[in-house]
UniProtKB/TrEMBL annotation:
Keywords: 4Fe-4S, DNA damage, DNA repair, Glycosidase, Hydrolase, Iron, Iron-sulfur, Metal-binding. Residues 52-201 form the HhH-GPD domain. It is an enzyme of class 3 (hydrolase). This is Adenine DNA glycosylase. SUPFAM superfamilies: DNA-glycosylase, Nudix. Belongs to the Nth/MutY family. It comes from Methylovulum psychrotolerans.
Length: 361
DNA sequence: AAAACGGGGAA
DNA sequence: TTCCCAGTTTT
């Protein structure tokens, strides 16, 4: 036990002034200060770089930023440019709605006669939310405003061992509160750059360099030896539900109609029951084959869960009079003796269904 | 193969 | 309010 991970150790109170001091001292010594958007700092250049960096790594952004600012050196130039020209400069960065927002916002800023210098004014522009607005205000205007981009979320969830997915509103709320608490009123611009830098270069998603971190003494996740647990992952989204009818066609002598599934996709190449999206599609299928239906009823629906969706299937039991071979379709279908189902490659839920059918009928 | 990224807009 | 999405890169 190295003491660092002893959960019974009392938590030292996080002191914002001390945190800021160590972070800024680290930034002074190790921070990145030569990135293109850190030169000739202006609201326009900060806004543009923040927008580009939302989705892309620094190294990728640099040439785009340079080409973009060369063609559109000011927000007025951007506003005056045709949208096609703007999109052409964005090509390859993805999220093209952002280029359109950028252009739209530039036109509004031009109409206003300059950049808004308030949170509300900035957030009223398309494509600028609270975090981007905070970055512009702190970096370009040196006003004290918190930000909460992906890097800062990672730093702060680790710092206070804040569990739960940051996209959750309650978690996001505590992160904003912590970000605000830690943002100093002096050196706001440098602080904002510093905490983003820390997240980008030391407090990385994987293999964080905690031994080089200036604030590891404040870091609850580090003390717990649990840094990689933060931030919590986005919960897997609820799976979509697909529904179908499975036709269990059987003869008086207990033979069952099976079809070979196409080689790719779900249950590729396995033998299974004919599958229909709708009841009348199943009926049509029987009618078109001139099957004489002796009796029919459906069983209760069941659910089978795949990695990416739920399949709710309703078995349709249809007994036919004539065990003909006119439903045979080359090598793709067969009548199978229901007492010997184990010899074929059957999907698990189909196998279960057939076993149940065997027992009950 | 899956997660991450910040904001907009649909539900 | 909450949920879902966009495109590309990284893991």
């Amino acid at each position: 036990m190295n003491g660092l991970s002893d959960p019974t150790m009392p938590r030292p109170r996080l002191d914002p002034a001390s945190f800021q001091e160590r972070l800024l001292a680290w930034f002074d010594q190790h921070g990145r200060k030569n990135l293109p958007w850190q030169q000739a700092i202006s609201p326009y250049r900060v806004w543009l770089s923040e927008t580009m960096l939302q989705q892309t790594q620094v190294a990728t952004v640099i040439p785009y930023f340079q080409a973009f600012t060369e063609s559109f050196p000011t927000v007025e130039a951007l506003a005056a440019a045709p949208i096609d020209e703007v999109l052409r400069h964005w090509a390859g960065l993805g999220y093209y709605a952002r280029a359109r927002n950028l252009h739209k916002a530039a036109q509004r800023i031009a109409e206003l006669g300059g950049f808004p210098d308030t949170l509300e004014g900035l957030m009223a522009l398309p494509g600028i939310g609270q975090s981007t607005a905070g970055a512009i205000l702190s970096i370009a205007f040196n006003n004290s405003h918190p930000i909460l981009d992906g890097n800062v979320k990672r730093v702060l969830t680790r710092l206070n061992a804040i569990g739960g997915w940051p996209g959750q509103s309650q978690v996001s709320k505590s992160l904003w509160a912590l970000s605000a608490e830690l943002t100093p009123s002096v050196r706001a611009a440098e602080y904002t750059q510093a905490i983003m830098d820390l997240g980008a270069t030391l407090c990385t998603r994987s293999k964080p360099l905690c031994l080089a971190c200036p604030v590891s003494a404040d870091c609850q996740a580090y003390r717990q030896g649990n840094v990689s647990a933060y931030p919590s992952r986005k919960p897997p989204k609820t799976l979509p539900i697909k529904a179908c009818f499975l036709l269990l066609l059987y003869t008086p002598d207990q033979r069952i109609y099976l079809e070979k599934r196409p080689p790719t996709g779900i249950w590729g190449g396995l033998w299974s029951l004919p599958e229909f999206a709708a009841l009348n599609a199943a009926e049509d299928w029987c009618l078109s084959r001139n099957l004489l239906i002796k009796q029919r009823h459906s069983l209760a629906s069941k659910r089978h869960t795949f990695s990416h969706y739920h399949l709710d299937y309703t078995p349709l039991l249809v007994q036919i009079e004539n065990p003909t071979n006119n439903v045979m379709e080359a090598e793709q279908a067969l009548w199978y003796n229901s007492a010997q189902i184990s010899g074929l490659g059957l999907p698990a839920p189909i196998k279960t269904l057939l076993q149940q059918f065997n027992t009950d009928y």
